[in-house]
Amino acid sequence: MLIYKYIKQHQYLLVSTILRGVSALSGLILAFCVTQKFDEFAAGEFFLFLAILGMLSTFFRIGLDNVILKNVGINNSKSNVSNIYAVSTLAVFTFYSVCLALVYITKQLGIAQEFFEYKYSFFLIKVLPFYSLNIISSFLFQAQQKTFLSLLALNIVQNLSVSIYLVLATKVDIENLILQYQILAILIFIAINVFIYYRNGFPNFQIKFEAKLLLYTTLSFWVIALANQSTIWFGQIYAAFYVDSGQIAFLSTAQRLSSVISLMLMAVNMVIAPKIAYFFKKGAISELKSLVQTSTTFLFVFVTFPVILITLWADSIMTLFGKQYSEASELLKIFCFAQLINVMTGPVGFILGMSGNERTLRNVVIIANIINIVVGVLFIPTFGVYGAALATATGMIFQNIMLVYFVYRKFSFLCLPFFKLEKLS
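-> structure tokens emitted (425 positions)
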């Protein structure tokens, strides 16, 4: 009866977790299909492309994703969705056009030739604005509490479509696979535009308020997002200068698999991030206290068992992607430990980011990223992908511990399991 009562009271968390599980599963299905279709060297090229795409798309989103999440969450249903999305689209394409012009100038001057020597650079240039806006739209749906649409836009459709293509295709190479990935991103972008403007009407071009609202606070969130993505992807990208693409495939697969652990945290964050912003805006501290208590308890209960299973059977799990992937079992354990800390500290980043403490969050994330880069530069040349995993894990753990400290310092409660939040005021 107690279990049934808990599920009844917090079914929104369970539904979000299930959907986030489907989202994470779609990423694993894609990774599995790629590793089965190609050898580890070709698979490593594709995973490296995704890592670079992830980093660059963060740059081109210019912080709009989290600004939208915060402000639409605060204003609840009062936000003009069409106008906000129109401002975001205009901002991204304008920024992209300026950067593209600068890239062309540097190419003519013979600067940054390493980028153009990367054989998939032109695929990146073509897909970046569409992929970036797909992620922004995902955050817009998230702010509106439309979890399913958010995850569809974020990765479910893209990952599963590419996976189906790999299963059905008889002859395919990495370049063709990346081309299909690019085409799908553009098609998803078109579908999102049709949906948003059909459901909410076309923008009325009185977008001065939305533009000011979105662009005023975007810088801090942009820096935060860039530093976060650097912590996640720096190890893979920097390691590519020292190890072959097969090792990158091992590193990427282990990192993607460990992300299953954090899906609980991501599911909870998708539900509560707009609520945190809304409660702080309204001064509803008791509701915020209840929300944080529920989410941290929920995370601890549901994450412990999967971590134990994955750690104990890391070698067997990795061999599902191919016998050669058993080498990555130790990498998986390193990432799992970091993700465990990430999950058990709860939504600390969102508590700071959605409560007007963007500067504190930004400073912590930047310092954590610097530590990540320093550890990577010191250890990757000698230890290869193990140094990369250590760097990523160190940055993540430091960041979460410091965020717990600053949440306690500012709001007088510990965002950890088993700690009561009685001092929140």
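The CA atoms of residues 72 and 79 lie 6 Å apart.
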